[in-house]
Amino acid sequence: MEVVKNGDKIIVKDIKDFDIAQTLLCGQCFHFDELNDNKFGVVAYSTYCIVSQKGSDLIFEKSSLNEVKNIWIPYFDLERDYAFIKKYLLEKDDKLKTAIDEKWGIRLLNQEFHEILLSFIISQNKQIPHIKKIVKDISEKYGEYLGEYEDVKFYAFPEIEDLNKITVEDYRELKTGFRAPYLKDASDKLNDGSIDFNMLRSIGYDKAIEKLTDIKGVGLKVANCVSLFSLGYRNSFPIDVWIKRIMEHVYFNDMDVSKEEIAKLADKLYGNFGGYAQQYLFSYGKDMSLGKDVK
DNA sequence: ATCCAGGCCCGAT
DNA sequence: ATCGGGCATGGA
User: Fold this and answer.
1) Is residue A35 part of a domain?
2) Which residue stretches of A61-167 are H helix?
3) Are A126 and A210 in a shared domain?
4) What pLDDT digit, counting tens, does each position of A181-202 carry?
5) A266 CB neighbours strand B below 7 A
6) Distance in angstroms, CA of A48 to C1' of C5?
7) Does residue A282 form part of some domain?
């Protein structure tokens, strides 16, 4: 991998095991727009980028060299060796082969903690397009204006301090429904420091999950998404309706199996790489509707 | 129209 | 410990 400046563009060259569309569209991320010409506008860490891919080149417009190096390369997890991860997983269990072959270009994004926490609280019992809309609405209303590209405006997700001024009623106005008090509880805990990124990073996976599920509206599924997508605990294995169906289909002949049993199997099969396996399986299985309508 | 969505809470067993 | 109803809102 090499970073070069070419006019007003920054190009990251020689990227392997990465496909920008697969990575953004696999359901781990809600704060981006699909633009013309296969470009994406992505917002994270109070900045935005216009990014597209040509083969093994990743092309950034409207970004400085520093931003690409310090924000976007870590964000897209480009410094990690995914060939090793895939090899490890396939040696453990070749049932993953189709999913990995099909979704070869997914990387797990390193997203901002408080945005992911609130986004996945919103996500419960919702479809991805609606989650995206609410994240966009919150950002437009309470986040900083960052800039625009071909008439698409970009807004940062509100900072933790900005969440303070959002009331339960405000959250309801954003169409979050019964999740409004959950979002308020999370906002309060972020503001008083009882939930904190560095703290959760330092106490390890098990205790981080415990802490996260203390928040109203955060159960095991949401906690594991937060843990996987923003805390870097790549052993996390979020189990939602989809991954439950998919695992039942692949490993249990479409029988009904408890989430506990699925979690146990995932841990045994994939160990510390569970999060990667989950994302390959989730994205492929959802595309294929694996296990749907078989009961 | 009815059902369900990247679930979770809460009360009843 | 486990099960089921209820929950806001919108799309299929």
Assistant:
1) yes
2) 65-67, 73-75, 82-92, 97-102, 113-123, 128-142, 160-163
3) yes
4) 999 999 999 999 999 999 999 9
5) no
6) 43
7) no
